[in-house]
Amino acid sequence: MTKVRHLLGISGGKDSAALAIYMKKNYPDLDIEYYTADTGKELDDTYELIDKLEGFLGKKITRIAGADKSSELPFDHFLKLYRGYLPSSNARWCTKKLKIEPFEKFVGDDKVISYVGIRGDEDREGYISRKSNIQSIFPFRKNIWSEEVVAKFLKNSNMDNVLSLYHEIEVGDKKERLFEILKTPLSRSFNQNQKLNQLLNIDTKAFNKAIFTFIKQNDYPLAEESAFPLVENDEILVRADIFSLLEDTGVGVPAYYKEVEFEVNDKKSTYARSRSGCFFCFYQQKIEWVWLYEQHTELFKKAMEYEKDGYTWIQDESLGDLIKPERIEQIKEDYIKRTQNKNNKKKSPYLLDILGEAEGEGCASCFI
Predict the structure, then answer these.
(1) Which of 7, 39, 69, 235 lies in the 20 to 30 Å Cα band around 75?
(2) pTM for this one?
(3) Which of 135, 103, 139 is nearest to 27 (CA)?
(4) pLDDT 10s digits, 211-255
(5) Boundary (domain end) residue, out of 221, 248, 275
(6) 364 domain-assigned
(7) Helical packing angle, 147-154 and 192-202, nearest 10°
């Protein structure tokens, strides 16, 4: 069989770091390669976390870069190529040039299993590579398989095959209900997610075994493996588990996640950075830009220097305008109100990440 590479990307955020720890502790026999895509614009905390992880893992974390032959830092190299056009949610050239393309070059034509740190309390798949030789696995979720694999497996035209696969699996006393679900075709009133969740709730391990056999019938990277230990995985890890993994192993949580107290107009609250990634990431909330200005003033000034020729990190507002005293006061006031409203609804005070790990990870690990 062709040797399959097992890869895990480290972004410098909590979720990918915790995933590396989790895989090391639970699947030590898997020969996993660790890497990080370095933009050259990360916080020092990110590099410190990577160094600590190397010590825990006992393995080198390979640094890959999108402009490794340039004398400039990767981001600056591509910014020049884009004539000063700053990345944004509508033009994420930074993700493509600094993350995806270097990763796919690192992979080449090898068949790869890519482990992605999306938690069990997140409802997203992330921005993953679509190359056919790269297959993504999500160990923290109840459903460890990608949407593309699940869609092929559960499509109505594959029903007879799925039934035959399940007939070869021991499913215990839930067999009747399980096969009732399996025989129910997808429709407007019974969609793929509903069928998937019902099958997982009845027997996650049986679902994994059926999918793995299905994969071996098709041209997926994992088809090259005679066995796959995560088939027996039915754990679900959420935010609290991630912090526990980091603290219990001594790797620790990156300092930028730690809450810092602030006060405005006799009202107190706390702020922190909610993601890893470049210090000037355009997905930051405005309160996070204020955090950067007040906690890392020099980095904020460097971010300001990139705003030229009408290009700004935030739509319709420059960083120079954002740090005017009255504007900072307004941002903090608004943030306190939003936080109170969300706390009243028993929700997190942070918006979920759009690009990287929710609440924690930037674009470094969301595409692999």
Answers:
(1) 7
(2) 0.89
(3) 139
(4) 999 999 999 999 999 999 999 999 999 999 999 999 999 999 999
(5) 248
(6) no
(7) 90
